[in-house]
Structures are given as structure tokens and as C-alpha cells.
Amino acid sequence: QKDPDYLKLWLDSFVSSYEQFLDVDFEKLPTRVDDIPPGISLLPDNILQVLRLQLLQCVQKMSDGLEEQQQALSLLLVKFFIILCRNLANVEEIGMCSYINHVITMTTLYIQQLKSKTKEKELADQTPIEEFVRHALAFCESLYDPYRNWRQRIAGCFLSTVEKSRQKYKPASLTVEFVPFFYQCFQESEHLKESLKCCLLHLFGAIVAGGQRNALQAVSPATMEVLMRVLADCDSWDDRNPEEVSRKAELTLKCLTEVVHILLTSSSDQRQVETSTILENYFKLLNSDHSALPNPRRCRQWESRFIALQIQMLNTITAMLDCTDRPVLQAIFLNSNCFEHLIRLLQNCKVFQGRLDCLAVSTIQALTAVMHKSPAAKEVFKERIGYAHIYEVLKSLGQPSRELLEELMNMAVEGDHMAVGILGISNVQPLLLLIQWLPELESHDLQIFISNWLRRICCINRQSRATCVNANMVIRIIKTLNSHSVLHCTCAENLIALLGSLGSQSMGSEELLQLIRLLRTEEPKQAHPYVVPVMRAILAMARKQGMASALQYFNLYHSMAGIAVPSIHKWPGSAFSFNAWLCLDQDRVDPSTTNKSGKRKQLY
Fold this sequence. Notes:
Structural class: mainly alpha
Helix content: 55-70%
Number of helices: 29
Order of helices and strands: HHHHHHHHHHHHHHHHHHHHHHHHHHHHH
Oligomer: single chain
Radius of gyration: 32 Å
Largest sheet: none
Shape: elongated
Distance between the termini: 81 Å
Strand content: under 5%
């Protein structure tokens, strides 16, 4: 305390000994070190009080400008605190002291300097100031995310709720200075380096991922306004590095995903912001009208960036819905009119030229995520939007790519379309859309690819055939076959084979009549090209293959399916018996139940 030079020498020696713990790069996973820094009880007596006074002196001298030695001392102090916090037993005590408030005060003033654009700033070396800011933000991370949950999340390692509950040490309580600090940093920040903005976003994500108590304090109207403003700024056209801007958008979206997940686990009295409010602003930005552009020369550059941002935002919807409380979040999305927003996005994007197909693919992925395993969401989509409407919208974008068609296949099976035999039909409507689209496809390769896949997925078992028959797929196939002049012969043969398989399940008189009418030609003596394959299909329908089975039956596949009978008011004697045949299909495995204890149907 009496000898500042000796104190600095001691701090230098301490920091040098534990320098491996100064992993201040948020983009990297923390390095594994066998040793740990000492506990506070092993440090010299009164050292924390001495360091607090030294830090306070630095804060007081900030207004007049710190000398080079004082700048070096303040950085050394922050490094010392980071190292101490890497012994997680020290985190709570360090967090209770006033160090963090002093560090935030200094960081605020330094960031104000970095945000200003003056000749003095351009001439001066900003490296020491930037270094202090980066270390200060890393110190905050050490306090509020001691187990580095956020860094692991960014690297693609997701911790389960059970794993997080096993973390022995809790993060320090968030200082009330954080929200004003975070908000102030992004005010008039156009001259602040993108890399420093990314560090600030990393810190926000770390606080949210570090623990629920701090997360709910940090997620406020002010911080949500900042995130939305940062996101809106990512489509600007200027001289900034596009990679840094894209990374900033990616981090902002990951922060929003983390925020949505933490809000789902909280009660309404704990939240400062509702998920529905976040989604309302999110969709408003996604569909924002940027028609007023500065000049034609910049339009292409802006368009590319804006569509790239929209694609990132659409992919984030899928990430948001990948959570344990998915049904709850799906209901919130439905109440936010998400379907209307997503379809409007496709309708409005026709005015742009460029990456429209990527945008359409991401939109279909988002729609699939909202409807995933939710019969209610599928019904809402059919009522509010309808597949006829989405077909017209997609068709207006021009010839589809294979990726877009594959995404519609994924929507039908709610998974990977290549997993035929593992995944069955979860949503039959996209299949009807694909059948309708076949004549419009100019690529014969795509026609053959789609029709071959449809034949496999629709005929894979009794359940799939019944689903397709109930959706009137036979009539849809016949209407498509009427356009035989634009259909490749292999595609037509696949569709007729599919029709035969479905007809063996069920074929009505109207459907049979339409099929026979299909074979009519204008020239009486000229045979229709479909005569032979259609006759084979009719023979397949008439021919019984495999074991005899009932033509009418109850389908109890759904987990909530059952048969309810009226209560018996008067029993005919002391008991009664009930007889029924059961057909147990075992040729379809649901991957969602393979790792769990499967549900068993019960007869009462």
C-alpha cells in the first residue's frame, strides 16, 4: 500500500505466473489448465482493499486523462481480477466488491473515446484503450458466466438443463450498472469498431447463458431495443468489413435465441419483456420496407446484404424452436401471425433479383419448424394461408431449384427426406403440392426425381397409403397426368404406379371414372400412351397381395387416438364380451421414440 512500485512488481509477477488463464478471446473455447489460481484466503492480507483503492484512484483521474503508467496499472488490475475469477470459488466474493462498477465506469469512458471521430483520435494510438476494454469485458464474463456456457454454445456444444444444474458455483449477481452501460455503448456507435461491438454482444450472451437470475435482469426493454437496432444496422451499405458485419448479425441472432429460451423457462412476474413483443419486432424487421434507396448504384450491394440478413433471421427461427418447451413457443409464434409474415416475405421478395431461391428455402424451413409435430399449427396454416396460396407464391418466383423441392419433401416428413423407411408422412399437403407442380417443372430430371421419391414415400406402408388416400391424392395424380404432353414418360409411369398402389387401398367410383376418361384421345384409332401402364395399375388394384385384411378399419396410430363408446346404462347380465381384430404395423420405426421408453397402446 505504501510502495506503489513494489505493488506493481508483485502484480506483474502474479499475472505472469497465471497468464494462461487470460483467455480474453470470446471466439475461443477456454483452454484446459490443470492448475488453478489461488483462493482469496491465500493472498496477502488486505490486498483486495489496496487494489480497490488503486482502481478508485484510476477512475478519479480518468476525467483528466490517465498517464501511461496509470493505464498500464489499470490493465494489470483487470488482468489480476480475471485470473482470480478463474478459481470459481472466488467469483462470488469478487462480484460482491465494487471492482466491477469501477471497471464499468472506466470502460464506459474509454468506449466514448473510441466512438468519437476526431483528428486527435486518428493520430493517437488506440491500442492500449482497446486492450483495456477487451479485458474489462472478459472480466465481466468471468463473473457472470464462470463456466463459459456461452462460449460452448457458440462453438456448438449445447449443455442440457441437468448439466447446468450440476455446476457447483453460481455466477455473481449482475450489477445494476450493466444495462445502462450496454445501452450507452451502442448509442451513436457508428465509429466503434465492429470487433468491439461483437465483444459486447458476446458479453450479453454470456450473461444470459450464465444463469437465469442474471439473464432476467439483463433482458429488458432497453437491451432488446439495442439488439433490434444492431440487427437493423447489419444491412447498411458502407465501407465496413462484410465478414465482421455478418458475424455481428450472427451473434445478435444467437443472443435473441438465448433470450427466447430463457424467457420460456420463467414465469410472467419474473419477465421484463414478453416473448411475443420480441417476435413482433423481429417480424417487423424481417418484413421491413427498404424501398427508398439512396441511388441505383448501391442497390445491388444493399439487396445482397439485406437478403443475407433475412436468410440469417429465418434460420434463427428454426434455432429458436429447437427447445424443450417447443409446443409453448409454437403457440406464441402462431399468436404472432408468423405464417402471414413469412408468406408476405416471399410475396414481397419478387421485386429483388438475386438469392431468392435461398430465401424461399429458408422460409420453408421456418414454416416446417413452426408446424413440426403440431396438428393444431398445421390446421391453422391450412385455414389462414392454405397450400394453394403458397403454391402460387412459390411458382411466381420462377423455376424452383432442387434444394427448394427437397425442402418441401422435408416439410412432408418433418425430417430428412432421404430417410425413407424411417420417417413416414407427417404432413401430406406438401406432397399434393409437389404432384401439382410436376407439369410446371421444365427439368425432366427433377420430374423423375420427385415422382420416384413420391412413389417410395407414399407406398411405404399401410399408414402412408391411407394418409394419401384420405387426402384425395388419387384425384390430384389424375389431374397431373392430364398434362401428359409436358411430363417425362418415366415421371408419368412413377405416378401411375403410385396411383395403382393407392387404388389397392381404396378407389372410389368417381376416381375410377376420371382414370378411364384419362385414356380418351381425340383420334379414335390412336391409343393413349398411358393405356398399358394404367391397365397394369388397375390389375394391381384388383389383385390382392399379402395377407387378407379388412378394407375398413380404425386408425389408432396417433398417440392420442382411441375409440370412445357411450356409457352402458343397463348391463345385459353380469358382464359382456367385445371381439376385434388388431392389425399391428411393424414396418415403420419412429426415430423420436427409439431412445425413449416407447408408448404402448392399451385396451380398456
